[in-house]
């Protein structure tokens, strides 16, 4: 005969789950409020956090769009203009560079977005520029890959030399240490946008930085940086701040509401703190979902089903140390 549930058991189960349900709700509220507080603080203190942007704000200019066929090949195995774009079919000496003669004031356009198709993990991209004050000097800043293109780049964050009149822009593609020249894929430079300073561009830059961490960066060592070196803010640090501010908010609420001190309240605060940690972990995972897919695609392309010797020659970290990818140590590495 089936045993019927005792009413007291249901009450015990409800009493056990209720504190955790409350903790999740309290932690969610604290997490959201912490995000609002940090966003307001960042907006108010932006030029204190990023003083390099002071000279770029307040300029009354419009976004300038330049088509890709305005670029000219400087160093490339085969490059030509087609359908409004600059097409690169082959590298020369492990790289390809296309340049654009354009005169503009750097302070008018702190953000630059290159519209590129066909970039793979086998190559790295960078933006180059010349200044009117130093026409013989070329400066460069690495570009951050997103899918088969690149993200918007915050020029002042990456270089103090992006100042004054700019007389030339260029984009370069360099094969990684394995020497695959973009994996044989065709590159297409469709155009470039020179973008003035605005809050919308800052938000776009933050999202682009956080959603596109560089792949193949020895993350197997359990150190996931979370963004490229020239990002405005590091997402790992922001998530940590969210949890700290959220926990401080919970403690302040307990104090302001004059909740009686006791073991029960201390346990509830601990539950909420644990839930805050879960929300922080979840936030970090959401930011990295696109990176995980990209990392998986790259790993499959380079290593899945390939012989050990080929896997080693496809590993940029290993081939970057030695011309022959330490092939003398096969099959031990």
Structure described in brief:
40% of the residues lie in helices and 24% in strands.
Structure, described:
The protein has two domains: 19-50 and 198-321, no CATH class; 63-197, Galactose-binding domain-like (Jelly Rolls), CATH 2.60.120. The protein has eight helices and 13 strands. The chain has helices at residues 7-44, 46-49, 155-158, 199-211, 235-256, 263-303, 308-313, 316-319; strands at 64-67, 72-75, 78-82, 85-90, 95-105, 111-117, 123-131, 134-142, 145-146, 149-150, 153-154, 165-175, 187-195. β3 and β4 (85-90) form a beta hairpin. α1 (7-44) crosses α5 (235-256) and α1 (7-44) packs across α6 (263-303). The protein is flat. The mean pLDDT is 85.
Structural class: alpha+beta
Amount of beta strand: 15-25%
Radius of gyration: 26 Å
Shape: flat
Query: Mean pLDDT across all residues, rounded?
Result: 85
Q: How far apart, in Å, are the first and last alpha carbons?
A: 64 Å
Task: Give unreliable regions as ranges.
Answer: none
**What is the ordering of alpha helices and beta strands?**
HHEEEEEEEEEEEHEEHHHHH
Count up the domains: 2
Oligomeric grouping of the chains: single chain
Helical segment tally?
8
How many distinct beta strands?
A: 13
Note the main sheet: 6 strands, antiparallel
User: What percentage of residues falls in helices of 4 or more residues?
Assistant: 25-40%
Topology:
Layout: H1 7-44, H2 46-49, E1 64-67, E2 72-75, E3 78-82, E4 85-90, E5 95-105, E6 111-117, E7 123-131, E8 134-142, E9 145-146, E10 149-150, E11 153-154, H3 155-158, E12 165-175, E13 187-195, H4 199-211, H5 235-256, H6 263-303, H7 308-313, H8 316-319
Antiparallel strand pairs: 1-13, 2-5, 3-4, 4-13, 5-12, 6-11, 6-13, 7-8, 7-12, 9-10
Helix pairs in contact: 1-5, 1-6, 5-6
């Amino acid at each position: 005969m089936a045993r019927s549930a005792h009413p007291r058991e249901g009450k015990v189960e409800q009493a056990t789950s209720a504190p955790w349900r409350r903790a999740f709700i309290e932690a969610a509220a604290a997490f959201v409020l912490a995000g609002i507080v940090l966003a307001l603080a960042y907006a108010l203190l932006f030029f204190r956090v990023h003083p390099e942007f002071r000279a770029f704000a307040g300029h009354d200019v419009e976004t300038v769009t330049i088509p890709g066929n305005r670029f000219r090949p400087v160093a490339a195995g085969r490059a030509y203009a087609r359908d409004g774009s600059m097409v690169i079919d082959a590298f020369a000496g492990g790289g390809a560079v296309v340049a654009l003669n354009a005169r503009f004031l750097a302070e008018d356009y702190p953000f630059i977005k290159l519209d590129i198709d066909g970039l793979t993990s086998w190559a790295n991209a960078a933006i180059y520029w010349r200044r009117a004050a130093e026409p013989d000097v070329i400066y460069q800043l690495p570009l951050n890959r997103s899918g088969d293109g690149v993200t918007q780049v915050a020029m002042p964050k990456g270089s103090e030399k992006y100042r004054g009149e700019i007389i030339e822009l260029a984009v370069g593609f360099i094969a990684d240490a394995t020497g695959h020249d973009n994996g044989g894929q065709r590159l297409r430079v469709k155009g470039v946008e020179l973008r003035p300073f605005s809050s919308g561009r800052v938000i776009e830059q933050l999202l682009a930085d956080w959603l596109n961490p560089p792949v193949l960066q020895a993350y197997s060592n359990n150190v996931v940086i979370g963004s490229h070196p020239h990002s405005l803010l590091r997402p790992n640090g922001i998530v940590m701040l969210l949890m700290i501010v959220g926990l401080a908010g919970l403690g302040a609420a307990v104090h302001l509401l004059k909740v009686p001190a006791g073991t029960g309240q201390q346990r509830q605060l601990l539950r909420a703190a644990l839930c805050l940690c879960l929300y922080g972990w979840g936030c970090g995972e959401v930011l990295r979902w696109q990176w995980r897919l990209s990392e998986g695609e790259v790993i499959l392309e380079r290593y899945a089903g390939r012989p050990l010797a080929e896997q080693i020659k496809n590993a940029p970290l290993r081939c970057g140390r030695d011309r022959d990818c330490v092939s003398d140590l096969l099959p031990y590495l």
